[in-house]
Amino acid sequence: MKELAQSKHPNILKLLGWRGTHFNMQLIFELYDQDLRKYVNGKPLHLRVSRKLSHDVFRAVACVHSHCILHRDIKPPNILVRNQPLAAILGDFGCARKLLPNVEGASQQQPLTQDVCTLWYRAPEILLSHDNYGYASDVWSVGVVMVEMHNGIPPFRKSSEIGMLFDMFKKLGTPTWSKELTAMRDFRGVLGTCAFAQFPCPEVFPFGSPGQDQDVIRAALHFCPSARISADVAIHHAWFS
């Protein structure tokens, strides 16, 4: 994480210093008055505000990914908010993981744990026990955060992994079988044993307002990780212009 700490990105929480003891390492960070959960407080944000904060989060995630780091716990309590000037600051890298660069001929990435990211913001590939999830899982979390800023509440709120998947299927439609999805360890089990999990895609996308903000959310909440928009592409979307 050394290079990330030295990047001094305006939307990433700054590490001011640290000190070690015989028992632990104490890190000193910037102090902010509130996080995004308190800022939203169960109420939809004005479109102008949600656009600014969404862009800030995507910028932070794009920087994190450019350093081959996967955050793995993007959620409103880990996004701090500054009022003057308005800005979102991504923090809490306790679950972050450095990924190997995708180089042809290099050894395969070690399997990643599924016990990461708060359940309501966890990407479907992690819920389906995919061992080699990647940067797209962070983008899914950002998409969920965007919906929460629009609606005041997270879009998927269940207490179990299987409940989360069924809630996603109900609201977005059960994904069609593809080579990418069927390679995930639990995909066949979930869809092969539960007939009621077959839900049609909604005629109208249920999240965001009809417009370019909805396009960004739709691209972030794609079931197939390879089809999901990347953070560095998202920051250049016309909605943020």
What does this structure look like?
This protein is an alpha+beta fold and 241 residues long. The chain has one domain (2-17, 27-97, 116-229): Orthogonal Bundle (Transferase(Phosphotransferase), domain 1), CATH 1.10.510. The protein has helices at 2-7, 36-40, 47-66, 124-127, 135-151, 161-172, 179-182, 187-193, 212-220, 231-234, and strands at 15-20, 25-29, 34-35, 69-70, 79-82, 87-90, 97-98. A three-stranded antiparallel sheet has the order 3-5-6. Strands 1-2 form a two-stranded antiparallel sheet. A hairpin with a 4-residue loop joins strand 1 (15-20) and strand 2 (25-29). Helix 5 (135-151) crosses helix 9.
Task: Describe what is shown at a glance.
By secondary structure, this protein is of the alpha+beta class. It is built from ten helices and seven strands.
> Major sheet: size, sense and barrel closure?
3 strands, antiparallel
Low-confidence stretches: 103-107
Q: What is the fold-level CATH name, i.e. the topology?
A: Transferase(Phosphotransferase), domain 1
The CATH H-level homologous superfamily: Transferase(Phosphotransferase) domain 1
CATH architecture: Orthogonal Bundle
Strand line-up of the largest beta sheet? 3-5-6
Strand content: 5-15%
Give Rg in angstroms: 18 Å
* Mass-distribution shape: globular
Output the number of helix runs. 10
Give the helix level as a range of percent: 25-40%
SS-based class: alpha+beta
